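agent: user wants the full assembly modeled, not chains individually. Plan: 1) parse entity lines 2) check alphabet per entity 3) run joint structure prediction 4) return tokens. Steps 1-2 passed, three entities, 688 residues total. Proceeding.
--- entities ---
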Amino acid sequence: MTEARMPLWEVFIRSRNGLSHKHVGSLHAADAEMALQAARDVYTRRGEGLSIWVVPSNAITASDPSEKEMLFEPTASKIYRHPTFYEIPDEVGHM
Amino acid sequence: MPTTSITLSETPLVGTVLRRADDALVLGHRLSEWCGHAPMLEEDIALANVALDLIGQARTLYAYAGEIEGSGHDEDALAFLRDSRQYRNLLLVEQPNGDFAETIVRQFLYAAFADPYWRAMTASTDPRLAEIAAKAEKESAYHLRHAAEWLIRLGDGTQESHHRAAGALEALWIYTGELFEVDAMERAVVETGAAVDPASLRATWDATVDAVLGEATLTRPAGLGVQTGGRSGRHTEHLGHLLAEMQSLPRTYPGATW
Amino acid sequence: MYTQALNARDAVAQPLSAEETAKSAAFQARVDDEQRIEPNDWMPEAYRRTLVRQISQHAHSEIVGMLPEGNWITRAPSLKRKAALLAKVQDEGGHGLYLYAAAETLGVSREEVVDQLLSGKAKYSSIFNYPTLTWADIGAIGWLVDGAAIMNQIPLCRCSYGPYARAMIRICKEESFHQRQGYEIMLTLSAGTAEQKALAQDALNRWWWPCLMMFGPPDGESQHSDASTRWKIKRFSNDQLRQKFVDATVPQAHFLGLTPPDPELAFDEASGHWRFGEIDWEEFRQVLAGNGPCNRDRLRVRRKAHADGAWVREAALAFAEKRRARKADAEKQAA
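--- prediction returned ---
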């Protein structure tokens, strides 16, 4: 008999370099407190983190890969959103 | 390194530091026995973290004890070339792992003491001990939280886990009195301000134990346990086996470095 | 270590529908373009099956691999070695955990794959069915077994399946100290007393051939590798990796003043490779079939740990449920 499943959690860690929390992996725990401690023990063994988030995996809503084109391709043509689109004479200096 | 046991010129300060070092090493060793065998993978990793912290504490404490003892004994000489009558750890920490409940109860009863101990030791007049305490305090705070959370989970989990946790508490309680013991040797160090009087931590320990046992729906046994002797090298039968295993290589190969 | 799962042969593939054939072609085009495949992407069933088997067996190898080295944690001969070994074995547990999580992205639960290990249905790397008899074995495992593992694992960091590749990147980063830890033990023993040097040579004698077997059967016999290669799960053949390992390791053995136990070992100037003798594939087959020195012990220990922990996991779940109910009650009261 397969025993009752221990819920799965996703772990996000903010590292020392001041960037935002980043997904680092997942783990199993019965509740949030246990998940937080396990995340500390499993994912910060080498001083990787300053802050941890744990989120039940089933609480994440993901975009559908088959809608990838609809969702993400339209932005590709909007090149005017990028600084290199605009021409500024060198004499103006860094801008 | 010879294979026979070393003899130490044990000043009160050396003795006091060795007691803490031995506590940390013996408990760290016990926890390391779980590696690969814990109830779940996440907990296997957590127990190893605690064990690594404790072994680290033992190493800095041994190194310091060796320095102040002044006969050139390094951390390994102190750990591997003293026999059980020379070990100074609490009886509590040498008790076998038993089931997970016994390990957690042992860990909780010790951490509820070690945490306020190291916090108070950060004010030691001995700068090296204060420095060691500053690191140990953060580690022991986490050890206490980890053990307390598990004890609550087991006590208030299923009937079986409650029963096991209650049994472990009953079995290990007999060693709790020793936590607060202070003899003439240690009192001399306490008077210099280099060490904290363990007896002074009793109220803090009581409060922690009462709060956590309450949450865990476990009944606190009456009074304090009466079995002592570890501080003067009179141990339970378990320590001899632990040391025989731990010390086997340095004792078998005289003069070898590893 | 641990691509032995890719040598297993699958059942005969079912014929594909026209739609699946088109999807399959698009999938292969993405793989060929070195794009990563992610959990929710469409993938051929055989790809999913191969990955579940490969990743979970890799995870089992890490977990069972904790046992032979764990055998010496309580007997490590110095406090420094004790801490390093415990940290290393703990890392292996962590690596098993990352890999189980990667397998779970493919729709299997950890409980299911662990059950497969405990029931003997799933395999793990053959190497962990050998015993650690002396302290020198801890050096030899770090140096040789982890050395072989690195050869295998670095290419997996570029595996086509995103979660597996990411887990491997983390694992390779963390494992960088493992092989050095082992080699340093071998260095110390080799430079030590005559007895210690003899321990080191004896360990090399016992671990050398099983390490060469870790890479799996010769290329000609491992039909399954074809699909794995096409899917960019496996990027080098068994024999390529084995040769790479021998070329890297023989000079390291000589530096230690030790001799690999192979009278036919010789440097071939023309090719720049070390040529080695015949591997005893019958021994390999016996170990895979469950008849290695430690197969039974390893599984028995894993089963016992799992069974002994059942009441703990149950208690954690029961308590979490109580905690949740109490919180809900408190919120209702407050409302």
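agent: reporting back. The first strand of chain A starts at residue 8 and ends at 15. Chain A has one domain: 8-86.
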